[in-house]
Amino acid sequence: MEIVWNSLRDQDWRPAALPLQQSRAYGLALAMTGAEVCQVAIRDAGGAAGHAQVVRRRLGPLRLSLLSRGPLWREIPAAGIEARALRCLGRAFPLVATPERPGLRAGLPLVTPRSHALWQITAAPGALRAGLDGKWRNRLVRAEATRLDLRLTRPLPGAIAWLLTADAARQRERGYRALPARFTHAWLAAAPEDALYTEAWAGGERVAAMLFLLHAPWASYHIGWTGEAGRRLEAHRLLLWRAALHLRERGIDTLDLGDVNTDGAPGLARFKIGTGARIASLGPTILIGPGGR
Questions:
Q1: C-alpha 36, offset from chain centre
Q2: What is the pLDDT of residues 221-264, one digit of tens each?
Q3: Cβ atoms 71, 288 nearer than 8 A
Q4: Are strands 95-98 and 62-68 parallel, antiparallel or unpaired?
Q5: pLDDT greater at residue 12 or residue 185
């Protein structure tokens, strides 16, 4: 197996399924925040061809490689090929990897597999609506009847500063970490057309907002906020629905709604599942030490 670092041209980076962490815009944004980002081609004598985007970081004297939701393959590789590729990628520096597909046996497990909600939005609007859970659809109908003022625009840094501040405060309050505001600013600088910002207003008051990042043919729900009035009016539900229709018109075929945690956040999990999204299991997060073990 041959691993070729920094070998990919722009036109090569177009797989059929593209998670956020393997998109070119993600790599550019991280590079703008000071990370070392590498694109990798994976070649095998048996014909398997894969791509991977790897981030290298320093932890004191150590260098660590991070691979999230990859590698991506032109076709599903034969058994053992993906594990072999990860071992090859981990030969120079320790590699922490979260493969996109479950069932991989390679390295030392660090975190158990997670699940993501992937909403395919290619169907006609009527069919897409019919695919909603009945309760989800009924609440959407109620939200539509409130005549909320919806605004869908390309986000400008000044216009979303409040949303990023609110998101950072929520991370501190709830004790979790997500991509920081500087990443979002870097994304908007690197790929200004590849984002969608949505707001819902009622009575002259902003009651909900959502920010999506586009990495065609996929897009990802990035940040959201809903106030008390927005929750009462089901504004978040209506924003997500209208955003999905808009993204569909822009050629997006899959909307990644993020992590599904039925134990820690059952209400949010039901909200995502209610769209008709497919629940996809990722592989476990694993550590592969130098030498490919």
A1: 20
A2: 999 999 999 999 999 999 999 999 999 999 999 999 999 988 88
A3: no
A4: parallel
A5: 185
**Six-digit token pair at 15?**
């797989």
Whether omega for the bond prior to residue 217 falls within 30 degrees of 0, making it cis, is yes
Q: Which residue has the tokens 């999990």?
A: 269
The tally of CA atoms less than 13 A away on the side-chain side of residue 254 is: 18
DSSP letter (8 states) at residue 51:
E
Q: 212 - beta bridge partners?
A: 196, 221
**71 by DSSP, 3-state: which?**
coil
Domains defined for the chain, CATH in brackets: 2-112+283-288 (3.40.630.30), 122-252 (3.40.630.30)
pTM for the structure as a whole? 0.93
| Beta strands per DSSP E along 134-253 | 149-153, 195-202, 205-215, 218-226
Instruction: Output the six-digit token pair for 54.
Output: 């790897």
Q: How far is CA 127 from CA 120, 131, 271, in A?
A: 11, 6, 19
How many residues does the structure list for the chain?
Answer: 293
Provide the token pair at 173: 């309050």
Cis upstream peptide for 71 (omega within 30°): yes
Query: Which of 214, 216, 178 shows the shortest CA–CA distance to 198?
Result: 214
Q: How many helices (H) and strands (E) does the chain have?
A: 9, 15
Q: Between the CA of residue 214 and those of 23, 132, 157, what are the distances in Å? A: 9, 23, 16
- 96 within 8 A of 287, measured Cβ to Cβ: yes
